[in-house]
Amino acid sequence: MIEQIEFRQATPEDASAIWEILQQAIRRRKEDGSTQWQNGYPNEQTVESDIQREIAHVATLNGKVVASAALVFNDEPTYDVIDGAWLTQGDFLVVHRIAVSDEVAGKGVAKKFFTYFEEFAKENQVFSIKIDTNFDNLAMLSILEKWGYTYCGEIQVSDGARKAFEKVLK
User: Sorted alphabetically, which SUPFAM superfamilies does this protein's record hold (predicted)?
Assistant: First the structure.
């Protein structure tokens, strides 16, 4: 079933599905005891902005949106200051707001999405992916460890510190 996953840039028609998936992820973070995404961010305006900026990407299963993420090249001001050190100083892809629907959570969609992120970066001649997550987002921390991301230090966002990771692609 999960083999039929396809990836693409999101369209305005995907906005409601992306927002529904983000709401599910927000609820899961809360149920897991995480403080991440519990302050009104991300919200519907975030989804609309990501689509307008053409940084929203989705995973679909049989045409239905089942996961989303925002992919941004180089433009992440909060990464300019890190308590630690990035592995590289060149171009990079930032992955934000990864969310998987309840329908496919735990079925390998996130794994396939991370493969897509790497392929997308390489297609654009970028060989570094940077990502951050909350200290208590155990699901994402586990994924990052499994995918070979290196912990680089802490960055500061509006509601506090985040763990920052980087993976250098071959």
Answer: Acyl-CoA N-acyltransferases (Nat)
Dihedral sign, Cα of residue 21, residue 23, residue 164, residue 32: negative
- List the beta bridge partners of residue 71: 95
pTM: 0.92
Contact 93, 121 (CB under 8 A): yes
Cα separation of 114 and 24, whole Å?
Answer: 20
Q: How many Å apart are CA 112 and CA 123, to the nearest integer?
A: 16
Q: Coil, helix or strand for 170?
A: coil
At 3, the pLDDT band (50, 70, 90 cuts) reads low
- Provide, for the chain, the percentages of residues in helix, strand and coil under a 3-state DSSP scheme, each rounded to the nearest 5: 35, 30, 35
Q: Which residues pair with 60 in a beta bridge?
A: 6, 65
